[in-house]
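Entry type: protein chain
Record version: 2
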Amino acid sequence: MTSRATPVPEPVTPDAPAALKRPLLTQEWLDLSFVHWALDPDAVAPLLPAGTVPDVYEGRTYVGLVAFRMHRVGWLRSPGVPYLGSFPETNVRLYSVDAHGRRGVVFRSMDASRLLPVLMGRIAFRLPYVWSRMAVRHRGDLVGYTSTRRLPGPRGAHSRLVVRRGEPIAEPSGLEHFLTARWGMHNAFFGDTGFLPNAHPRWPLHRAELVRCEENLLAAAGLPGGLGEPVSVLYSPGVPVALGRPARPAGIPTP
């Protein structure tokens, strides 16, 4: 899939469009903070894989800095691994849509604190995982995330986030659904762009205040500077997640 013709995106749905009967991976995403900035779609189009274009909401696309805890990653239906499968992670992600109208995310970087999962993610899925020194700490209604990159770099890439958790959101806005209800990722799995689906319960979202943000992960990921204040800050206690098998551009599941 190499065309960049403008696709007709599928609707944004707060619930997963389909259950995954045979998940490839299971895991939990916990203590998530979503921090987003608005961007001109033309600024991020060159950063997306072939066959995808920026997904937009009211004419703007977004870059997200998403910090969380990965918990008990497991293959197929096996129980999640308690140590190697549990670790902090911080992602820089963009929003994409392909010629089939599948909305997804594109990861520009994925910092994680366990070396073995980093190596597996890079080798098996060709994802931009990097090994970092990381921590997630709670103090009352404050959640803090720290990340300092180790390998492969660039050395010195880091983030320091502190978010104050607020009240639950009874009915998220259209933009809040757009930024969080993403049911797959686009990535060059097979030398061409594939799509890896996921499914999980509807996000329990909270209002949040960004108390501290010191980071250069966006610049290290090739994003333009001078983005100003974020347009959205959200928190979620988390969800259990199932990831399906990557689909080739034609939508045929891989063996």
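Comment: The chain has one domain: 25-243.
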